[in-house]
Write a structure and sequence with these properties.
- The structure holds three protein chains of three kinds.
- Chain A is of the alpha+beta class.
- Chain A is 38% helix and 15% strand.
- Chain A contains 19 helices and 15 strands.
- In chain A, the strands form five sheets. A five-stranded mixed sheet of chain A has the order 1-2-5-4-3, covered by helices on one side. Chain A has a three-stranded antiparallel sheet with strand order 8-9-10.
- The two termini of chain A are 40 Å apart.
- Chain B has a domain at 40-159: Rossmann fold, CATH 3.40.50.12280.
- Chain B contains six helices and five strands; from the N terminus they run H-H-E-H-E-H-E-H-E-E-H.
- By secondary structure, chain C is an alpha+beta fold.
- The chains are: A alpha+beta, B alpha/beta, C alpha+beta.
- Chains in contact: A-B, A-C, B-C.
């Protein structure tokens, strides 16, 4: 086939464009809006084109599915980003439908299983119905919630103005609580004439019906006694679900027969608030996505907006960014290991050791950015401030003298522990094919033998200047998933050593400090390798000070798509460890 | 009558000089409060970013065990304090209320961080409860986003001060005839979050809006 | 041998256990204080820390870097709270991501024109996300981020002007480097202004 080589050249994408349009002359057109790229696919041919993209053009990994509400044009657009796991730039294709309910778009779940949760999210928040989706329930809000909040005509209860800054803060300056401006005196919005007396809240039947009850009939077709099947709800308040995740598990004895994650217990409306914010104001909100790695989140967002603004990044700042992102990865993986062992039942000791190194790394973040966790350190074109001399010394101390030794110690401490090995070895997590099909990225994909790391596959910032290996392991069992975090810590330390030696002097921002940036109209999709996987931002600008559409492709959220495949047939005790393997953070899952 | 004994339970109570060596009024209150203040067991319950700082406060560097607060109980039946550590969303709220109702008295609620105190940076969001104090009686508010572990410990010390000031005679959990004085009815997840205590008010507002339209 | 891995792990824990005492002894031999001294705390925050590295707040406190930020405060010069640096230009209110700053401007009672001084200034500390944008973009160095984190209370925290104001000397104390840098920049600016005025005065004479 005419699938082009995976090189990052303009020729390749032009060639791809030509061959795709030639393949589907009637249904695919190039997106000609200024600042936009990719293709517009007729919705009737969407599944056909997607299948061809996967099979013939080898875009095997679906990264993002999201909707954009173009209310002025009366269109609803669904945007898809697909990538090759062999590397290189991705492809973006869109389909447009009239903005009249019901808005229907064919589901791509049979082409890429990774579309599952993202399509449900688009249904929940934008009201786009994906026909053919087997389980199209609300995912972040609860069943029965009124409205689709990410539509442009949805106004939340504490709505003040379309975009920040609000005039009531300055120049008006009348301090009042938002509660007093709302007729309900609370963050509540009810349909007109609502009355509790004749209201029947929706039950969770749909969730329980979505669990596979096929098991009520045994192989011979006889009704099985339901007595040996039991539905267990884990969470949202459960010590091992890493936050407020809830999982409805159907058990046969101790074996999981079916399972559905239920999320949204920490849905903080990141996208909606982001669309009200100015570009700069979003930066501290990104800190709160994956709250272990605010530096990595900042990184992704800065990269995306810089793409949109077409501005360079100061040389020194690039190195500072890499240093911060890699330090962040080191502490994330250490915490991962500590928490994993915690979940396996060895309470505290390993995680206390992990937290010790983390504290020392957070001291550095505090010294450079001012806050331990919510760093808010990156700005468009660079970073806020230079690393103070004493902090620089401390980074060097840690990287050259301490972290390596402590990683060794951690490995000596745990790797050969017989109990640990017995729990982890040969418990299958994912094989390469399953992982790619479910759009799993990050260490889980690499532990399944796919060397897909954005720092190599589609290099951003200055990662192409460093000598490091993409950590890969091939068994795809839990033990490999565990060991690969140590590999990644070592590679990160390698990058850190080089970056600290090579870091040049000079300014730390290519732009003047400004709180109102000018962003030309267009779209941008920026992605970085966050410690949890591929973190991507999709931003649409209409030239105003606020983004028109702002969407986060959170790795934890998409990785969770695979959890059902991972856990079917395993014992309930292993489920806790398998969930830990995905390394989810609820701030990022629910946003 | 009451004023005469005001502060009798406090260490600073001024004992008249002539009986200083005769009576000791160290009282049951001080013993009672001393016992409680050094064994406040938090509910092992994390919501969002603040939960990570809460964990950090439990780890070696900050070591809340020094305050007798290291025993994080995953079950509400054994917990004394609910540390609301993070954004309270509408979807999560019924679970939180259920946990709170299951906690035995004496129980305390600490709103850790901006989100739990007032909704914080996410206050405007459609799925966010603007402060847990709308539903639960909050004892201490700790500002910060997130509060550093040291700020959390400072807040815990504030809670200890509050415990110190309580008197066994007046605490709500020994009052006669008042069963479950702190019971909070479960809110309903309908078209939006409905606080059943205020449902009539909500209905009136919804009707009024219709009238205007 | 089965169990070797576990023994190895136990060795690590034993080592960690011993290190505290070894460190204590080495400090004692050198005649220095490992606990309750700035030197000791700095050691426990450095790469050389080993064994117990607990910093026993409130008796001890972690060394805060200069850039540490918690909640904002307003700077006033002099001793009384009259000489407020803020001009109520509104940049902090505009840049604030969660929009937790309210500024009431002053109008001159006679002319009705705005006066560059805030009549009232509210920050809802329970909405503030400690991002530091207000301090970063303030052109008058009037709003800064505080180091004081022990501000837990029994009530919701909405600070008004009275409560927000802190003297410039306090600011100089918590952020000495920034303070000197800003003072130098201001002096240079004033000198440039004076030189310009001088030149302007000299120009018609020539």
């Amino acid at each position: 086939m005419t699938a082009p080589a995976s090189t990052t050249t303009i020729d390749a994408s032009a060639q791809l464009s030509a061959s795709l349009v030639a393949r589907f002359p009637d249904s695919v057109t190039a997106d000609a809006r200024p600042g936009f790229s990719g293709f517009i696919v007729k919705k009737e041919n969407l599944v056909e084109v997607a299948t061809a993209l996967r099979d013939e053009f080898s875009f095997d990994l679906l990264s993002t599915v999201t909707g954009v509400d173009y209310i002025a044009e009366n269109k609803m657009e669904v945007v898809y980003h697909a990538h090759r796991t062999t590397g290189g730039p991705g492809i973006v294709f869109k389909t447009q439908v009239d903005r009249v309910d019901p808005i229907e778009v064919p589901s791509l779940i049979n082409v890429w299983a990774g579309a599952d949760f993202q399509e449900r999210e688009a249904w929940d928040l934008m009201g786009i119905k994906f026909t053919g989706h087997p389980d199209l329930r609300r995912i972040l809000m609860w069943e029965g919630f009124e409205g689709h909040p990410l539509r442009k005509d949805y106004k939340e209860a504490f709505y003040e103005e379309d975009v920040k800054p609000y005039k009531s803060r300055w120049p008006e300056g009348n301090h009042t609580y938002a509660e007093f401006k709302n007729p309900y005196r609370d963050n509540v919005k009810l349909p007109e004439g609502f009355s509790l007396d004749n209201y029947q809240p929706q039950t969770e039947d749909q969730l329980y019906f979505s669990l596979e009850r096929s098991s009520t009939k045994n192989d011979a077709g006889h009704e099985k006694e339901m007595g040996d099947h039991m539905v267990v709800n884990m969470g949202p308040h459960h010590p091992s679900t890493h936050g407020v995740l809830r999982v409805a598990v159907e058990l046969n004895g101790e074996t999981i027969t079916s399972l559905k994650p239920v999320m949204g217990y920490l849905h903080r409306n990141h996208d909606k608030i982001g669309e009200r914010n100015t570009y700069l104001q979003i930066m501290p909100y990104t800190d709160r996505l994956d709250y272990f790695n605010s530096m990595a989140n900042n990184f992704g967002y800065a990269v995306t907006v810089e793409k949109l603004m077409k501005i360079p990044v100061a040389e020194r700042a690039e190195y500072i960014r890499v240093i911060m992102a890699e330090l962040s990865r080191v502490q994330n993986h250490l915490i991962f290991i500590g928490m994993l062992i915690n979940d396996l039942g060895s309470m505290y000791t390993p995680s206390l050791y992990a937290f010790e190194e983390r504290e020392l790394i957070l001291d550095i973040f505090e010294a450079v950015s001012g806050a331990r966790m919510m760093c808010n350190y990156f700005r468009f074109g660079g970073v806020v401030r230079d690393i103070p001399d004493d902090a620089m010394q401390k980074i060097k101390d840690l990287v050259f003298d301490r972290l390596q030794a402590k990683t060794d110690e951690m490995e000596r401490f745990l790797n050969e522990n017989e109990v640990l090995v017995a729990r982890l070895k040969d418990v299958h997590v994912l094989n390469a094919e399953e992982a790619i099909r479910h759009s799993v990225t990050g260490p889980c994909l690499r532990a399944a033998g796919v060397p897909y790391d954005l720092r190599r596959a589609d290099p951003y910032s200055v990662y192409d200047r460093f000598d490091f290996d993409v950590a890969v392991r091939y068994n795809g069992d839990m033990y490999d998933n565990y060991l690969i975090r140590f590999d990644e810590i070592r590679q990160s330390l390698r990058i850190l050593e080089q970056a600290l030696k090579q870091i040049p002097g000079g300014p730390i921002n290519s732009q003047k400090p400004q709180y109102q940036v000018r962003v030309p109209a267009g779209e941008a999709y920026g992605r970085v390798e966050s410690p949890k996987g591929e973190l991507a931002y999709y931003v649409v600008s209409n030239g105003k000070p606020n983004p028109y559409r702002y969407h986060v492709r959170a790795p934890s959220f998409v990785n969770l798509t695979a959890v059902e495949t991972m856990c079917k047939g395993v014992k309930i005790a292993d489920f806790v460890a398998l969930l830990a393997m995905l390394d989810i953070v609820m701030g990022e899952v629910d946003r | 009558m009451e004023n005469k004994y005001e502060g009798l339970n406090l260490p600073s109570y001024n004992i008249p000089e002539d009986i200083q060596n005769v009576v000791s009024i160290t009282t049951i209150d001080r013993l009672y409060n001393w016992g409680r203040r050094w064994s406040v067991w938090p509910l092992m319950f994390g919501l969002a970013c603040c939960a990570i700082e809460m964990i950090a406060a439990q780890t070696a560097r900050y070591d809340m065990a020094r305050f007798g607060m290291e025993v994080m109980r995953p079950t509400p039946r054994q917990a004394d304090m609910m540390l609301v550590s993070g954004t309270v969303t509408k979807k999560m709220l019924p679970s939180i209320i259920r946990l709170y109702n299951q906690m035995p008295e004496p129980k305390y609620v600490v709103a850790m961080g901006a989100c739990a105190s007032s909704g914080g940076p996410f206050k405007e969001g459609y799925n966010v409860v603007a402060g847990i104090d709308k539903f639960l009686p909050v004892d201490v508010y700790i500002p910060g986003c997130p509060p550093t572990p040291q700020a959390l410990i400072a807040g815990m010390m504030k809670l200890q001060e509050k415990i110190d000031k309580q008197s066994i005679k007046r605490v709500r959990w020994y009052e006669k005839g008042k069963v479950d004085s702190n019971y909070v009815p479960m809110p309903i997840l309908g078209p939006d979050l409905i606080d059943v205590r205020r449902s009539k008010e909500f209905e009136a507002a919804a009707a009024k809006k219709e009238g205007v339209a | 041998m089965y169990g070797k891995g576990i023994l190895k792990g136990l060795g690590v824990t034993l080592n960690r256990f011993m290190e505290t005492y070894l460190d204590d002894i080495s400090w004692w031999v050198r005649g220095k204080k490992r606990y309750n001294s700035p030197e000791g705390i700095a050691h426990r925050q450095s790469k050389n820390t080993r064994g117990i590295f607990t910093v026993q707040y409130p008796e001890e406190q972690l060394l805060q870097p200069e850039e540490f930020r918690f909640v904002p405060f307003l700077v006033h010069d002099g001793d009384d709270k009259k000489d407020i640096r803020c001009t109520s230009c509104g940049i902090c209110a505009k840049v604030c991501p969660p929009q937790c700053i309210w500024i009431v401007r002053t109008n001159d009672p006679q002319t009705g024109k705005p006066v560059p001084q805030p009549a009232e200034f509210y920050i809802d500390m329970d909405i503030c996300m400690n991002c530091g944008f207000c301090a970063e973009y303030c052109p008058f160095d009037a709003i800064k981020m505080d180091h004081d984190f022990a501000i837990a209370s029994y009530e919701r925290n909405v600070y008004n002007l009275e409560k927000l104001l802190k003297p410039a000397s306090y600011y100089a104390e918590i952020r000495p480097l920034n303070y000197t840098k800003e003072e130098e920049a201001r002096k240079a600016k004033e000198a440039a202004k004076a030189a310009k005025a001088e030149a302007a005065a000299a120009a018609p004479a020539a």
